[in-house]
């Protein structure tokens, strides 16, 4: 199964990235108010879709791991957590570029920016725990993921309510998507598919690498216990 | 793939007991409350005899307030806008120190294991620990609040009671989340660095609501202050539930 899926997703990602790049620069028209700057939207927004998916996957897999202690859940959660850091970094960087062009600032303490940053910091904490926690850190990390996912709506509403007293959200409204021309829409949809193919590819590869790592570690421990291996 | 079959046989979860063997006492009855009270009383008695944590925490918080208050001086007066941030930063930083130390004490004597092995329900242990830590944080706040009012020349009048309520809710939220993570980190290497790393992102909504409530109170906007007080209460409620739900599965022993 994996033997077919990995090349399949890899091909889809490569073709999708090349295709969307071509469409972004040669097919889609310039947007009326933001002009060229709007083009980052085709990669920035799908990237955030992937980020929230992977955080959700990490939270659910962590809860599953806490419930039934099957290390396979933990492998998935760990891979998803690492990818959340990666996609979060991409999203924050592309978002800052957009912000500089559209708002004139690299950063604004705005609803979605603040929420995403806190979420990203939580996931960085998750990865740090996995990396430096040593033995027994799986459960701690799983707890952190569950707490982090529960925390997302709280952060969102805290910022939203704090902002409501001062200003409107600086992000473009959701209606933006329905106002797109058809070639913009096609590019956007293709880009979403591409990013999810990319995510699926990375998840498959990373999860299996983590699983192999864990099995190897277990085997070595068993070997040491049985006296077959030298320490 | 022979390796697959082999490792599948070898990765039997030797370290985790079957689900049925673990205690799953969820009943909040008189015995639960008595156990929680006993754990809290034990922690506070140990603390009262040495006063180690409460003295160091309080002094650290006071130093933070002083350092920040002269970082925000303008025309020989500290800016009143800085009060919410200073007060909450001092409480959270000092609280983290106290949290780490309170659990280090259990680790040094290996008494956490004894607590968890005892027939007391684990959730009662959690509740007792939380109550004790809340008491310590409130003791710190009792020093931080007057210091802030003094250095920043704030006259709150009767709103001081409201501010006390806000700080108490903050102390509870901090202790609930903090106790879960500190208990989990007990057996983890480099727990001193990891505790703030995992704790602070989760505390963000609480710190935000706390600073907003304090700021609104200082600006005289009582309605806004009540709104954020309710938000703090909601935060506490959410994490009390999540902690009760996950604590048993999370504590490593």
Main traits of this protein?
heterodimer, A: mainly alpha, 80% helix, B: 253 residues, mainly alpha, two-stranded antiparallel ribbon, globular, disordered N terminus
Describe the structure.
- The complex is a heterodimer of chains A (231) and B (253).
- Chain A is mainly alpha-helical and 231 residues long.
- Chain A has one domain (2-226).
- Chain A has helices at residues 2-27, 41-68, 71-102, 111-132, 137-164, 175-178, 182-226.
- With 253 residues, chain B is mostly helical.
- Chain B has one domain.
- Chain B has nine helices and two strands, in the order H-H-H-E-E-H-H-H-H-H-H.
- A two-stranded antiparallel ribbon of chain B has the order 1-2.
- In chain B, strand 1 and strand 2 form a beta hairpin.
- Chain B is globular.
Radius of gyration of chain A: 21 Å
Structure annotation, total helices of chain B:
9
The assembly state of the depicted protein chains is: heterodimer
Which chain pair shows the most residues in contact? A-B, 41 and 40 residues
Based on Cα principal axes, name the global outline of chain B: globular
Helical content of chain B (DSSP H or I, runs of 4+)? over 70%
H/E series of chain B, N to C?
A: HHHEEHHHHHH
Count of alpha/pi helices of chain A: 7
Helix-residue proportion of chain A: over 70%
The proportion of strand residues of chain A reads under 5%
Number of strands of chain B: 2
Order the strands across the largest sheet of chain B as they lie in space.
1-2
Note the gap between the termini of chain B.
36 Å
